[in-house]
Structure formats: C-alpha cells, structure tokens
Design a protein that fits this description.
The protein is built from 17 helices and 15 strands. The chain has helices at residues 15-21, 63-80, 92-101, 113-121, 140-145, 168-173, 185-195, 209-218, 236-251, 266-271, 284-291, 327-337, 340-350, 360-366, 371-375, 389-400, 408-420; strands spanning 39-40, 54-58, 84-88, 108-112, 126-127, 147-148, 151-152, 155-161, 163-167, 201-205, 254-256, 275-280, 297-300, 311-320, 380-382. Strands 2, 3, 4, 8, 14 and 15 form a six-stranded mixed sheet that branches. Helix 2 (63-80) packs antiparallel against helix 13 (340-350). The longest helix has 18 residues, at 63-80.
C-alpha cells in the first residue's frame, strides 16, 4: 500500500475551478446552436505576427501556481525577446467572455473543455493544435477533448483523473489489508460497508456528474458518443451505474459529502474523518498536506465495473485568440509551456500531471504514491465538449442531488432529452 507524501499539490491549475465544481461554459440553454467553427490555421505563416506584447490570462489555484506560471513566462520572454505578462482572473469564464465581447481578449488563456465549442463556433479561437511541434506527444484522449469538427484547437496544458482515496488509519483499524483494496464494484461495496461505523461513512463524494460519471464510465456508459454526435445519456449502462450508487446510498455505506455529511467537498469529508474513502483528483493532495497533514492516505485506481476500468479526467488547454496580433509568438510560448521539462517543473511547483506522454516515466518516478492518477489516462473519459453541454450538466447535477430516493431511469431520460437538444 502506498504512503502519503507531504508535497503540496493543488489541483492542476484551474481544473478544480472550471472542470469539476461548476461548469460555466458558453452555452446558455439546451437549444444552443453551435454555429460555424472557428478558424483553423493551415501553417505557421498564416498566424499573425507583430511586435506587440503578449497577455496571458489564467485561473490560478493559488500563489504556487501563479508564481510558477509567471516565472516560466518571464524565462520565455527573456529568451525570445517578446514582452509577456500574466494576469490572474478572479472569475476566469466571466473575464474571458468580457474580453472577447470588448474586442480585447488575451492572447493566450486557460480554456476549459466545456467552453471550447462555444468559442470555436463564434470564431473567437484560432485552431493551432496541428502546428505544434509536440502535437503527437499529447495523450490522445486530451487531444480529443480539444478537438471540434476534426480541428485540434489548443494544447492541453495539464490534466487530472479521479481515483479512490483511502484513509489508511481507518482501513487498518477495520482489519483490512492491501489485498482488500477493491478491484470490482462488489468489492467496493463490501469494503465501504466494512468501513461504515457510527460517524463514519465508507465512501463519500460530490453530488455531481463530475464524480458519479466515473461509475457511468465503469459501466460502459457516457453522456455523448465518442464522436460527439449522439446523446447516449439514458443508456442501460448509465442506468446500471446510478442504480448501483443508489443501492449503496440506501445501505448507508455511500454518501454525498455535501448533502449527507455537511462537508464542503469530498476532500473535506475525507480529511475530517467523516468518510473513510472518497473519489477525487490529484488536487486533493494539496488540501491534505495543508489542511489535514496528520491523515495518512493511499491512492488506488477506482475498481472496474461491468464495462471495465473507467474514470473521468479534467483538463484545460492554452486557448489562443483569433484576434491576437502576435499568434506566432503565442504558439512559441505554448510549445515552451507544454514541453516535458516545463510541465515537470509545474508539477513540482503546484501539482498537475503533465499532458505529454514523454514526461510520464519521470513523473511516475517522482510521484510513485500517485501513480494511480496517471494510470487513469489510459481509460479516462473527458467532459463532453458540445456547445451548451454545461447547462445540461448543471441540470443533471441538480437531479443527482435527489438520487437516493429518485428514479435513475427518469433522471437519465431527462438528461437524454436535454443532451439531444445540444448534440448534432
């Protein structure tokens, strides 16, 4: 069983902010029309070039991330001779939207998957992905996350997956060993029941698709087909997944961290001992180091379901404005920021997993206790990128709050109808 480490680890930049808590994309309803796609760049010569300084807008997880990005951009600026400044957004989706509306967007910016299609559809973005010298180094699933209408729009800056976090003290006290780490749904139900005692729930997680979607993936389900053209939300696989979760909630061994346990999120329920296990991404390590340093824990891959292994991944990319007057310099900066060397430096500074495969061996060697998170890259599902999907997911999350006493089929039938309105 792996051991807890003390390195501060804060959620892959804005992943926690824009990818896992509140989806705030461009779509405003279930009947959004994606419109035309943004402009692809045929080759680097088609990118704009000027002496203008670059502006970079980020949504930071804290001082460590801000300092690391500022330091990297400053190093590139000194090397390239191009002035560049980093701005930290208080509300990234809002400030980005305001920048585009005013005709003065930043040159580069953090862009969440659920916001991509809307900005691509209204022509706000340049599709530069195929121009990247390191384009083949990115994990294919991350490239898919940032591809719209067969255009690879932007470089994934980093990512995280969900895995199972186990309180080692409570695990040992219950008489469980390494051999009991669950690899199937039945085993997860069994250990959750064993760990459930007065005041402690076996497994707790957020009341949202961004957590329960992992069970859907393990059952072989998803919200939208791989090619993004078909709504498959009410599939038998998804019904089976929600039914499984509901049954464990009824038994008292699964719970919502917020609604049932009164915690702010799964990490808080876990850190305070209200739950013995939780489902979270690698951002939890920073919270554990900072807020619950005495809690020893291990990270294990989520168990397989009827459909095999499954989890969710969250990522942002480096979006590039179609109106940027200096896109060639912006492209060079993106290549610098997404190099294996720089991403490993970011990882050491504030915790994200590198989005390039060439950094995998070194990252695993540096972080053996967290290897399960990176293993998930092989089978993780991303949040759908269809324009308007954020509104669908917001509605889905509201329905999931009542899952314990609700009807999984009915919940998913509503999601299916809403998803069909924004797909295709």
């Amino acid at each position: 069983m792996t051991r807890h480490i003390t390195r501060t680890w804060l959620g892959a930049g804005a992943l926690l902010l824009t990818g896992t808590l509140a989806l705030t994309g461009c779509g405003s309803g279930f009947d959004d029309d994606g419109g035309s796609t943004g402009g692809p760049a045929g080759d680097a010569s088609e990118l704009t070039s000027s002496d203008d300084a670059l502006t970079i807008l980020i949504g930071s997880s804290g001082d460590a991330e801000t300092a690391a990005v500022e330091e990297a951009v400053a190093a590139w600026s000194e090397e390239s001779g191009v002035e560049a400044s980093v701005q930290v957004a208080n509300d990234l989706p809002q400030q980005l939207s305001q920048g585009f509306a005013a005709g003065s967007p930043p040159d580069l910016f953090y862009l969440a998957t659920e916001a991509l299609a809307g900005y691509a559809g209204n022509g706000s973005l340049i599709a530069y992905g195929d121009l990247l010298e390191n384009k083949d180094d990115f994990y294919p699933s991350l490239v898919q996350n940032f591809t719209v209408d067969d255009q690879f729009y932007c470089a994934p800056k980093d990512f995280s997956t969900l895995q199972l976090i186990i309180n080692k003290g409570l695990w040992d006290a219950a008489g469980l060993t390494d051999d009991d780490i669950p690899t199937t749904w039945d085993e997860l139900a069994d250990v959750a029941a064993t760990l459930t005692t007065d005041g402690v729930t076996g497994l707790a997680f957020g009341a949202e698709y961004q957590r329960l979607g992992a069970f859907m993936a393990q059952a072989g389900g998803q919200l939208v087909s791989d090619d993004g053209t078909e709504a498959v939300a009410n599939s038998p696989e998804n019904v089976e997944a929600l039914t499984y979760v509901q049954e464990q909630m009824e038994a008292g061994s699964f719970a919502y961290a917020t609604i049932d346990l009164g915690a702010g999120w799964g990490g808080e329920a876990f850190g305070t001992g209200k739950s013995a296990m939780t489902i979270e991404g690698n951002w939890i390590t920073g919270a554990m180091s900072n807020d619950y340093p005495d809690v020893e824990y291990v990270v294990a891959e989520l168990p397989e379901g009827p459909g095999g292994k499954g989890t969710m991944q969250f990522t942002n990319c480096w979006g590039m404005a179609a109106d940027s007057p200096n896109q060639q310099a912006a492209l060079d900066l993106v290549e610098y920021l997404t190099s294996a060397e720089q991403q490993l430096a970011f990882s050491a500074a504030f915790g994200p997993m590198p989005s390039v495969q060439s950094a995998a061996d070194q990252w695993t060697a540096d972080n053996p206790e967290l290897a399960a998170f990176l293993a998930g890259a092989e089978y993780a599902q991303g949040v759908p990128t269809n324009d308007g999907i954020s509104a669908v997911i917001t509605d889905f999350n509201a329905s999931l709050e009542g899952l314990k006493t609700g009807d999984p089929q009915q919940i998913l039938d509503t999601v299916q109808s809403n998803t069909e309105a924004v797909v295709g």
